[in-house]
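Example (one chain per record):
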Amino acid sequence: MADFMTPKQRSQAMSKVRNANTKPEKLIRSRLHRLGFRFRNNVATLPDKPDIVFPKYTLVVFVNGCFWHQHAGCKRANIPKSNQEYWITHIQVEKPFLNFQQTPIAQSKYFERTGNGPEKQKRFSDNL
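Predicted structure:
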C-alpha cells in the first residue's frame, strides 16, 4: 500500500510520536510520587534507558506497550496496515530484547519491573 503522505508530512507526523512522558508513564509516576517514592526519569546513563529509576532501591521500571509485546488476544497488539512486512520483521527482531534476561540491564546492579499489558498494568497500578 502506498503512503498517502509526502515524505515531509510523514516526517512531521512521526516527530510527534513520543518515546518518553507517555500517558501511562505519567500515571505511574504520579501515583508513585503521591506515595512518597522519589525517582529519576529516563536515565540515559543506564542500559536501555529505563522509564523510571529508583536509585535508593536499585530498581528500574520499564513501561512498555502492547504493540511491542504483542499479547495474544489483546486488541491493542495490532500490526499497522501499511508496510506490514516491515513491522512484522521489526517486532520479531525487537521482541527478544524485551525479555529481561537478554537485556544489558540484567547485567547491571539494578532489578527490573516491567509494567506492560492490560492485566499487568491494572495489577501494577492497583498496588500503587
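Caption: The beta strands are 40-41, 52-54, 59-64, 111-116.
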